[in-house]
Design a protein that fits this description.
This protein has about 1300 residues and is of the alpha+beta class. It has a nine-stranded mixed sheet with strand order 45-44-46-47-54-53-52-49-50. It has a seven-stranded mixed sheet with strand order 20-22-19-23-21-24-25, sandwiched between helices. It is built from 39 helices and 54 strands. Helices cover about 30% and strands about 25% of the residues. Helix 14 runs parallel beside helix 17 and helix 35 packs across helix 37.
């Protein structure tokens, strides 16, 4: 057949369209030329590798034609044989793209397909032919060695889908060869077993007169790895020859023993459960599918995880699966919970941005096998954001630390840094009170695997994460990296949601997520906690690669999986939920009475695993760690002679202080419609927020707050002080959210370090002791959850200079959580300039101490010495928190920001940035002499700055005087109108410059990173916007009345809230329409396919936002394809669109989908489809839109309004030309456009987030009954949903009118 290239009887290649934009191709071309290959030009096409079930000659021509249409194949199917290479997903794996594409094709009625995969074909135009070795060199430099394979000959692709013969297990000849057999297996399999564990195995297997299998040993290694068992934290300690009474874990638990109040579950389920407020949860009734409210206690599930080793090896996948794994941890709490909002953070060594060298960056030196810091920060944040985005969890909090310095404390220089990065992933969710505890599981209950199939990925990850970077075998490193499939995890979560929404009838008895160690860890842990054994049929485990051995099936870490026990009586109900959500599941075994784990292989009629759980989780020899206390010599630090002007600029440019915008706008922060505060603050959306706040429901003002505290550079010299500062900083960060008492705060503590290196044991012990036994008990703060990662060193050899090592400081990252009674009391760093005369008060919680050790000012001078900051207000802090809450309650605080990285000068400058206001600063009151100005301005001790009205000063000082630090509260300045930052002491100006100049420095890192990662043109446009001190920011204009309350009629019309697999924005959509007076019904596409629900029964249809089929084959296109190639469905939609008495709305992904259905929609001629954003990244922002007068029933009486609204999409740019867009304007079919800060239609980025010509944000049809738009009105119909809002907006935001208009239309 001419439309394909046949490479074997069943395998064909189909050439797709060009994959990269011009600027991406130019970037690749430059890389190729830099590698020394003369190249004139390069073309890159998608290529689809298709395996049919039968010989190609037997496949119907119609199916081939349909497949070409679905894949949007290239008309030119010729393939060059010269100067080209194909890069594919790693051979032997199945990419997420593949599984979703197969779903689309299957749901479109093509049944002849067995497998499909996508590769990228690079074709080079060169003066002379490139030889094979050069071509291979180029291909391997462009491919990701961790996740991709290279083919230089397209005819070799026939082996891509080769199915290996099934294998049995291997036996380790322990009885014959003794311990040597175990030692050899330990090395070959990368088990990371220590000598005592090998001895334990040898003795036990010898006693049983049994040879271990490779699967048993791998399972034992995962279950007993440092990653899973936390052996160091459970060890006992001998210090200076004296036995200490408590382990590190017991010291952390001490905080819970001191204050259990508000903690409902601690140290279980990989997460903690905290007491929440009662509220109205909103979800569909599992039986009727009608959305309703349920008044109940809405408790918090909190968890923070790290994924450091995988992120070092493969940044995108490592960070992506790190976020995905943490989300699963939350979902698997109790009998099922709902993940809600996320956090993410990174610590890396120096960035060394090309063309942007900094004086503090030492020459780069690192092993080849791990990613460089720059690569990590270009790829890993995108990976984490992509998973959160696709799953549908807003990532609303984060941190970023860049640190790498050489210091000499012990007589030999040592480099401290993060060559092995920290990748932090965490968040909070909600859980029903009745589901906090697992249920009792009777013998005979079914063992179920929920989620994707087993694949040969992530093998031995638990062991690998327990090793120092660079110390394991390279192939084992590759095997330990997982792959992500967020859309699959979303499907799993939808099943869990249907289960917990049944309340007391929840079919889940017990649930465990599948993470490190795969099923080999998850199932034994589940059985151990249940108190029974289990029998598993190995070949019932869903498996995408039948050639895998039992070890590989049992121990791989394929993501997006859970293991559950389901009672027999509820099994059919559970299966119905899975089938409705198209979520794979398998019954793989059952619970048995005896405490034995048996894994049966029906293929070979044998048992790869037959072990007692007592043996697997047996008591290993007790570990005792020892050290003799050493005092670190503290060298002096003198920065007093530095020039302030130069130092301010360098401090603002340091990545730890500089704008984090490039890390934020890639992540959807408005999904769920329950976000009150994210990272961006004020009308100019400046990334300076101290905390994150979510609402507990769509009703009321109760919420939850999160913050992060982290001061790791200080730990190089003083780990206990660093740990205390991390805890205290999490408190000063969360303070402005509306915390009532310090004891309301609960912490997650994530400990990272290298105990076996330098003073690592002492650093770790002293840090845990001071937090667990001193500071947190003094403040009655409980730490009910946490994690350790104690292999934070990177070692490597090089032929010239021998052994190298980079060791991270003892790094404690604290995440703080608390429930909040009234989120509307919270304040931000944005200075308020509309409330009359105001003052800035500096509250110096360090009581005059100005230690500079570990500060950013010291770092930019390459000096890692001096006394470090410490917590001086242990006694006063609880009362300070109470006093501060009183000020919030009385509305006496206008703005707030804490002192942290960069010191007081950074605090004040960031407050100015957020308001585009200048500040006059006077430091005379607390700076004793001119020579102390550097210390006064740049020390990073604890402290906060608040803005108050001048008239309230006396009352504010009176309230603050009660907590014992009145002598350290200083009036230090006020906002000014000339947009300059002035610092003076004793009437002498020390520093003066414009906001624009400071913004240039502060925004430079973000700009440079975006210029490399994104479209350089849009990166520059955003930079120019960010540094322009005269921009107006958000400037709403509302031309209609915003109702204070909604009056609903007695009769409620039925509305279909339509979703497909991967859609994640349906709940907030239902909440908005429910508020307007509709009966909202949860409708999955499977309901329509199987005729369980019919469109004809509804008065409205809304297609919601998200990532249907993971946006494979184009955003919304897979969803539309499944309709267009199903004749019955196609007719149902066509008939619905024809009705004059109903309306249809498509938002974001629903908008993209409806655009592909325009042939079915009357009056939609000329509608665009939606393509990749000009910036070539996912855009998540609050933008302004201008409303035009059109027939759209949704925008009635809203014309000429300019309204802020969230956007969150990767493909929002309209496909039509300027002329075609103008024709749509002439026909009055464009109701909404992107506008700038003056309210004018714009194509300028970032006002227009996707580059749509004429600013088009949405279109309508001629009757106005069908409207599609990319922005999200459902996420801002309540005023509290808005990141920033004018004071006049009370309960509702202006977008409530959009939904009320739909109700009026039905009336």
């Amino acid at each position: 057949m001419n439309s394909t290239k046949e490479v074997s009887g069943k395998t064909v290649l189909l050439k797709g369209q060009g994959y990269f934009s011009d600027f991406r191709l130019n970037s690749i071309l430059k890389t190729i030329r830099d590698l020394g290959v003369k190249t004139d030009s390069i073309v890159c096409n998608e290529v689809y590798i298709v395996l049919f079930k039968d010989e190609l000659k037997n496949i119907k021509e119609k199916e081939i034609t349909t497949l070409n249409v679905i894949l949007n194949s290239n008309k030119d199917q010729s393939f060059s044989k010269e100067n080209c290479f194909l890069i594919t997903p790693r051979k032997g794996t199945i990419s997420p793209w593949s599984s979703k594409a197969q779903d689309i094709i299957k749901n479109s009625g093509i049944n002849s397909l067995d497998r499909i995969e996508r590769g990228l074909l690079y074709s080079l135009s060169t003066p002379t032919m490139i030889n094979l070795s050069q071509l291979k060199f180029l291909a391997e430099n462009l491919a990701d060695r961790m996740t991709q394979s290279v083919f230089l000959n397209l005819d070799q692709i026939s082996s891509f889908f080769y199915k290996h013969k099934k294998n049995s297990f291997k036996v380790i000849p322990l009885l014959k060869e003794g311990k040597k057999a175990l030692e050899r297996a330990n090395e070959l399999l990368g088990l990371a077993l220590n000598n005592s564990e090998i001895e334990y195995l040898y003795v036990n297997y010898s006693d049983k007169e049994k040879d271990p299998t490779d699967a048993e040993l791998m399972m034992f290694a995962q279950a007993n790895s440092e990653h899973c068992r936390h052996k160091i934290f459970n060890s006992f300690w001998q210090i200076d020859g004296k036995q200490e009474p408590l382990s590190l874990f017991q010291m952390v638990q001490n905080t819970y023993q001191v204050n259990k109040k508000g903690v409902l579950s601690a140290y279980k389920d990989n997460a903690a459960v905290l007491e929440g407020f009662e509220g109205k949860r909103f979800f569909p009734d599992p039986k009727t599918k009608i959305y309703k409210t349920s008044k109940e206690a809405i408790h918090l599930v909190t968890k923070v995880e790290t994924h450091n080793h995988p992120t070092a090896i493969s940044p995108f996948s490592g960070a992506s699966t790190g976020s995905g794994g943490e989300i699963r941890d939350e979902g698997a709490v109790g009998r099922g919970a709902k993940p809600k909002v996320g956090l993410c953070g990174f610590s890396v060594s120096n960035l060394r941005i090309p063309g942007f060298p900094e004086s503090w960056e030492i020459p780069e030196d690192s092993p080849e096998r791990i990613a460089k810091p720059l690569q990590i920060m270009l790829e890993a944040p995108i990976g984490a954001a992509a998973f959160n985005n696709e799953f549908g969890r807003p990532n609303i909090l984060g941190y970023f630390r860049s640190f790498e310095m050489e210091a000499d404390f012990e007589g030999s220089p040592q480099v401290y840094g993060y060559h092995k990065p920290i990748m932090l992933a965490g968040g909070l969710g909600n859980i029903k009170n009745s589901h906090i505890k697992k249920a009792k599981v009777p013998v005979g209950s079914k063992l179920v695997v929920l989620g994707g199939p087993a694949m040969l990925i992530g093998l031995g990850g638990g062991s690998a994460s327990s090793l120092t970077s660079g110390s394991s075998d390279q192939e084992l490193d590759y095997a330990s990296v997982q792959r992500e499939n967020a859309e699959m995890e979303r499907r799993c979560q939808e099943v869990l949601d249907r289960c917990w929404q049944k309340g007391n009838s929840n079919p889940i008895l017990f649930i465990h997520d599948v993470g490190a160690g795969g099923l080999s860890n998850a199932i034994p842990e589940l059985l151990k906690d249940i108190g029974h054994g289990g029998k598993v049929d190995l070949r019932e485990i869903p498996n995408a690669e039948p050639g895998m051995s039992p070890l590989e099936i049992w121990c791989n870490e394929s993501q997006e999986r859970y293991v559950l026990t389901i009672s027999k009586k509820n099994l059919s109900n559970f299966i119905y939920f899975c089938e409705r959500e198209r979520c794979p599941y398998a019954l793989i075994g059952e619970i048995t009475k005896s405490p034995q784990l048996q894994v049966y292989d029906s293929e070979f009629d044998n048992y790869p695993i037959n072990l007692s759980l007592d043996f697997l989780f047996g008591k290993l020899p007790e570990s005792i760690r020892t050290f003799n206390t050493k005092k670190k010599s503290i060298k002096g630090l003198n920065l007093n002679n530095l020039e302030i002007n130069s130092l301010v600029k360098r401090v603002l440019r340091h990545p730890s202080v500089a704008s984090k915008n490039f890390l934020i706008t890639i992540g959807d922060r408005s999904i769920t419609g329950l976000v009150h505060r994210d990272q961006l603050v004020g009308p100019w959306q400046v990334p300076v927020s101290d905390n994150a706040i979510s609402l507990i429901s769509f009703y009321g003002k109760e919420g939850e707050a999160m913050s992060i505290g982290e001061r790791s550079p200080c730990a190089v010299q003083d780990s206990p002080a660093s740990a205390r500062m991390a805890v205290a900083e999490s408190v000063t960060n969360i303070l402005s959210s509306g915390i009532r008492r310090i004891s309301d705060i609960k912490l997650s503590a994530n400990w990272m370090g290298s105990p076996d290196r330098l003073k690592g044991n002492q650093d770790l012990y002293e840090a845990v002791f001071t937090v667990g036994m001193e500071l947190c008990p003094a403040w009655k703060i409980s730490i009910p959850v946490g994690k350790d990662s104690l292999s934070m060193a990177t070692d490597w050899d090089d032929k010239k200079e021998g052994r190298h090592s980079v060791i991270s400081p003892l790094s404690l990252v604290i995440s703080a959580f608390s429930r909040i009674k009234n989120v509307d009391l919270s304040v931000t760093p944005q200075l308020i300039t509309t409330e009359g005369p105001s003052e800035l008060l500096f509250i110096d919680l360090a009581k005059g101490k100005q230690r500079m050790g570990g500060s950013i000012a010291a770092q930019v001078e390459n000096k890692l010495y001096g006394m470090t900051p410490d917590v001086e207000c242990v006694k006063e802090m609880p009362e300070f928190v109470r006093s501060f809450y009183k000020l919030l309650l009385n509305r006496k605080i206008l703005a707030y920001h804490d002192r942290s990285d960069g010191g007081l000068v950074s605090t004040l400058v960031e407050m100015a940035f957020a308001a585009r206001s200048g500040i006059d600063i006077d430091i005379s009151s607390f700076c004793r002499s001119d020579s102390k100005q550097i210390q006064a301005l740049f020390n990073e001790e604890l402290g906060v700055v608040i803005q108050i009205r001048k008239k309230d000063k006396k009352e504010v000082l009176s309230i603050l005087s009660t907590f014992g630090i009145a002598d350290h509260i200083y009036s230090i300045g006020k906002p000014n109108c000339d947009k300059k930052i002035r610092i003076k002491r004793n009437n002498k100006i020390s520093f003066e410059t414009s906001l624009t100049k400071l913004l240039k420095e502060w925004s430079s890192v973000s700009y440079r990173m975006q210029s490399i990662r994104d479209n350089p043109k849009t990166a520059q446009e955003e930079y120019l916007y960010d540094i322009d001190q005269d921009r107006k920011g958000m400037n709403p204009k509302v031309t209609f009345y915003i109702p204070k309350r909604i009056t609903r009629g007695l009769k409620k019309p039925k509305l279909a809230i339509l979703r497909e697999q991967g859609v994640n924005g349906h709940v907030e959509m239902a909440a908005a329409f429910d508020r307007a007076g509709f009966v909202c019904v949860d409708v999955h596409m499977t309901d329509l396919v199987y005729r369980k629900i019919r469109l004809e029964d509804f008065r409205g249809l809304v297609a919601c936002g998200g990532f249907s089929y993971g946006d494979v084959l184009g955003a919304g296109r897979g969803w539309a394809t499944s309709i267009l190639y199903n004749e019955r469905l196609k007719n149902d939609f066509k008939e619905f669109f024809l009705r004059p008495d109903v309306f249809s709305l498509g938002i974001c992904n629903g908008c993209q989908m409806f655009a592909h259905l325009s042939s079915l929609i009357p009056g939609s001629k000329g509608w665009p489809i939606f393509l990749k954003n000009t910036s070539e990244k996912f855009e998540a922002r609050v933008v302004q839109t201008r409303i035009h007068k059109t027939p759209s029933i949704f925008f009635k009486d809203m014309s000429d309004s300019v309204l802020p609204i969230p956007v969150a999409h990767g493909e929002g740019r309209i496909s039509i030309s300027q002329e075609e867009a103008k024709l749509l304007f002439k026909r009055n079919l464009i109701p909404v456009v992107y506008s700038d800060d003056l309210g004018l239609t714009t194509e300028k980025y970032p006002f227009n987030p996707n580059g749509s010509c004429e600013g088009v944000a949405g279109v309508t049809n001629e009757s106005g009954t069908v409207t599609i738009m990319m922005p999200h009105p459902e996420r801002s119909f309540l005023s509290l949903q808005n990141s920033w809002r004018p004071k006049a907006w009370l309960k509702y935001g202006p977008w409530i009118k959009f939904f009320s208009n739909a109700r009026e239309f039905i009336d």
